Amino acid sequence: MDTFFLLLNIAILLGFIFVLIRMQQKHVSFSKRVFTGLGLGVLLGVYLQLVFGADSNVVSQTSDWYNIAGRGYVRLLMMIVIPLVMVSIIQSIINLEKSSELGKISLWIIGILVGTTAVVSTRRYRKLSTLRSGCRRNRSRSSRTGSRSLLRRHANRSC
């Protein structure tokens, strides 16, 4: 029975994709197609959650099949966007008239990259240190109380 529902969910997704393709063939504006796709996706998600539940085997199998198309789409977008960004950066550097501007721009770019890396590293370090201190606190509390349920509750955590 799970296979039937899985195939039904895939057929519903393919039907939604067909609707979007027909909209493109009828020259409906891009923004209307995007919002229609967004609305259809929300409806599909609500349907899956209400009919099957969040922890359903059908939903997990369906999302695995949906991810095939989703990951492919994202990778295709990355194949297009990354070269375009690189070409636009190279073109803007080539079009600079003064070489002194190149030095200023380079300093700004390096400064922004170092700054964002520092922010991300600091946030990651704080998060990890908070998690580690929480694990130490929970271990010491569970050893003092001797409660087996508390030990079981924290046994799945990687401290």
Q: What do these coordinates show?
A:
About 7% of the residues have low confidence. It contains five helices and no strands. Helix 1 runs antiparallel to helix 2 and helix 1 runs parallel beside helix 3. By secondary structure, it is mainly alpha-helical.
Would you report the number of β strands?
Answer: 0
Helical amount: over 70%
> What is the H/E order?
HHHHH
Mean of residue pLDDT? Answer: 81
Number of helices: 5
Estimate the global geometry from the Cα principal axes.
flat
Largest sheet: none
What multimeric state do the chains show?
A: single chain
**Which segments are poorly predicted (pLDDT under 50) over 5 or more consecutive residues?**
146-156
Rg result? 26 Å
From the helix content, strand content and strand pairing, which structural class follows? mainly alpha
The N- and C-terminal alpha carbons lie at a distance of 41 Å
Strand content: under 5%
Task: Describe the structure concisely.
This protein has 159 residues and is mainly α.
Layout of helices and strands:
Elements: H1 2-25, H2 30-52, H3 57-94, H4 99-145, H5 148-155
Helix pairs in contact: 1-2, 1-3, 4-5
